[in-house]
Amino acid sequence: MTTPPNAPVILDPTGTDRHGEHRRLRAHGPAVRVDILGVTAWSVTDPALLKKLLTSESVSKDARAHWPDFEEVVQSWPLALWVAVENMFTAYGADHRRLRRLVAPAFSARRIAALEHVVEAIVTDLLDDLDALPSGEPVDLREHLAYPLPISVIGHLMGVPVGRRNAFRALVDGVFDTTLTAEQSTVNTGRLYEALDQLIAAKRAEPGDDMTSLLIAARDEEGDGGRLSDPELRDTLLLMISAGYETTVNVIDQAAAHLLAHPGQLDHIRAGRATWGDAVEETLRHEPAVKHLPLRFALSDISLPGGQVIAKGEAILASYAAANRHPDWHGETADTFDLTRVPKDHLAFGHGIHFCLGAPLARLEVATALRMLFERFPGLELAAPIEKLTPLASLISNGHQTLPVRLRPSAG
Question: Tell me, what's the pLDDT at 135?
Answer without folding.
Answer: 79
